[in-house]
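re: ur question from earlier - yeah i can do the single chain one, its not a big deal. heres the input i used so u can compare w yours
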Amino acid sequence: MKSLYLSAILLSLYALGAADETIFIPSMYVTETLQRPNPGQAYNYSLHLCPGEDSRYDNFIANVSINLPYNLEWVPTLGYVTLKVSNATSWKKPFCTNVDNKDGNGPNCLFVYHKEMGNELYFNVTANEADGIQFTFGIDFREQDQLPRVADTPRSFSPFQASPGVPSFHWYKPKLVQNVKLTAPGKVKTTESVLYSFAMCRKSSQKEIVVVNVFANDASSAFSTYLCSSSHCGPAKNSVTSDTSNSQINKVSADIEAFSDGSVYVLITGFGGTEVNEFYLLVSTKKRSRGRSNLLLSQSGPENVCDSADTESICTSEPIPDLKNGE
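and the output i got, formated as tokens:
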């Protein structure tokens, strides 16, 4: 009788953690800090997609955007930047640029990404001669029905005149920081679960952790969150770590080495006093604090993982290799 009772408990836990489908969330890659180039200075960034991301984003639209916080209208006298996107062989025919022969410079450029373009993308952002230019920079991938239609051919423009020819990649800046988030609140019914997946991998030789934050969107929603390395994820299954506080804020973190194939899964179970629980999901990477060698880290959130000195070092990067005349 006792064994039947325990079996019933395990079966209910299994059902509670089950999800009907897996929802894939594309990544965003952004600068972590405000960029402040000198007049005429070129900033060069690189992006290395995680294993499988090139196939996952095949035929997606890549949205490459720049934000000028003190020059929202892109007034030339206040300063602007020129953007160019390519891989190691396409500088003479970039995938996209914000230089338009008719409309001048703009805040973004779009192109249809194909896996044949490779998993290494390069970005050249060159400041014009105005003083005091500041910007943030990022790229995200979206399905084609989420953005205006884009011609499925590379756009060809001349390089920015202030920096003729192929930019020197001895100039390099912090690598782009990967993060994953929902663009609208997620929803899950109480006692039911929703399963998300995304690609996240180490971008350098630094030891990194994956940090997952789930926030309720109202006063009645509450959750438990499970971080897993496979789609078999839930309370009755193996998870890397979990936050079973059934509260409005869940935080879990684990070493990125726990996800050897680059696939990360997050299962969120509703436990609020309402039929439907609403939440925001934000996932990012941080440098791992010295002395932590275990794959399982504290559930208490990123503030106990990286101190102020460590968070600065996430902005260091390795030099980007030279490109030889687009060959």
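Confidence is low (pLDDT under 50) at residues 1-15, 152-172, 292-327. not sure if urs matches, ping me
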